[in-house]
């Protein structure tokens, strides 16, 4: 297998690993809200309560997110497919096109998520062409909605067969 084929297989195998979808938000140094769609999110530790996600070095918000002292992870609900696309798209004002408010501690919170983890930056770790951001969970909003699922570049609500 040559390098090109290896990359194709890597993308196919990883794309065949279903995930949820999050939108991660923070506030830029100039006070403006920033956010992006992320599915590299995972839990890390219970004590202390840590989560991680990774950011591509080419993302325009890279410097802001790797330096943000606080950020919020929104686990998207099944009916938030449009929000998932909005926060991954270019040339459109993301926060002009969704409902959100600033939290008490100055982080943008988008309405309608299944759950929100309010985090402080714990550490960042190098990870090739990405950087891994580890956050400590400080506060949790648990809205107990069904999640949005992502698989092979498509997103959808959870199938009925998952319900009891
Ligand atoms: C479902 C989905 C998951 C994504 N996950 C990540 C991720 O984990 N890390 C990342 O850096 N970009 C991820 N992206 C891409 C970013 O959302 C996208 O590159 C970014 O919002 C572009 O921002 P920019 O135009 O400001 O550079 C994902 C996109 C989608 C649609």
Automatic annotation (TrEMBL):
Organism: Edaphobacillus lindanitolerans
Top-level taxon of the source organism: Bacteria
Oxidoreductase recorded as keyword: yes
Name the record gives this protein: NADH-FMN oxidoreductase RutF, flavin reductase (DIM6/NTAB) family
Family membership: Belongs to the non-flavoprotein flavin reductase family.
Coiled coil regions, renumbered to chain: none
Limits of the Flavin reductase like domain: 14-157
GO molecular function (one): riboflavin reductase (NADPH) activity
Entry-linked InterPro entries: Flavin_Rdtase-like_dom (IPR002563), NADH-dep_flavin_reductase (IPR050268), Split_barrel_FMN-bd (IPR012349)
Entry keywords, A to Z: Oxidoreductase
Keyword Nucleotide-binding (UniProt): no
